[in-house]
Amino acid sequence: MPPQTIDEELAQMERDIRQLKIEYDQYFGGGRKRPPTEIEWRIDLMMKRYAERGGDLKSAQRFRFNNLTQTYAKYKDIFRKKLREKEEGYVQRHFGAAAKAIEAERAKQHAEAHHEAPAATPASVPASSRAAAAAYRATFSEPDREGDKVEQLYKAFVGAKEKAGEETGNLSRERFDDFVRKKTRELQKQKNAKDIEYVVETVDGQVKLKALVKS
């Protein structure tokens, strides 16, 4: 098989850059378990080779290579920022539904408090809601000292998501522990409460994690 011409290699480089963006988007979206390092390594190698042999390029080829270099550098900067955010725990896609549920519960409790109405109890919850409610419940007052209970809550959360067919590859026990610890302290301070109950439930096929103030 004859070696590729410069134009063919530049065309391949352009295709590789497009494919790299697609695969990184899949990775950040949870569709891939690992970043596409192999294709990135191949592009880096090709970029370095052509940077060293710039004198061999015709003006049109050099123009095309420079455009590819700029595009690739822009993508690399975006990828680095997203990877850093992911590593530092800013990307917590798996807590999205739980956060919304917690905020909704807080708004509900706030409204009830201002109307001096008692907090909802299991008996006052509609039957349809009870049917979808908690596959698992756990109450915390000091999560730092209740590691075993936090672990059981985490396992229940992961298990429910797996059963519902949801992505679990991005879940982290460390970030989950941090989430429970911070949320417990936040609600204890806001509501002047001691015990915070966490509820894992599946509603309409979606797993949710709720934090409730125990009365």
Arithmetic mean of pLDDT? 79
Number of helices: 7
Provide the low-confidence segments as ranges: 115-134
Strands side by side in the biggest sheet: 1-2-3
**Strand proportion:** 5-15%
Percent range of helical residues: 55-70%
Main pleated-sheet profile: 3 strands, antiparallel
Distance between the termini: 76 Å
Oligomer category:
single chain
The count of β-strands is 3
Q: What is the total number of structural domains? A: 2
Shape: elongated
Alpha-beta classification: mainly alpha
Radius of gyration: 25 Å
N to C succession of SSEs: HHHHHEHHEE
Give the gist of this structure.
With 215 residues, the protein is mostly helical. It contains 7 helices and 3 strands.
Describe what you observe in this structure.
It is built from seven helices and three strands. The protein folds into two domains: 6-87; 93-213, no CATH class. 60% of the residues lie in helices and 10% in strands. The protein has 215 residues and is mainly alpha-helical. The termini are far apart. It has a three-stranded antiparallel β-sheet with strand order 1-2-3.
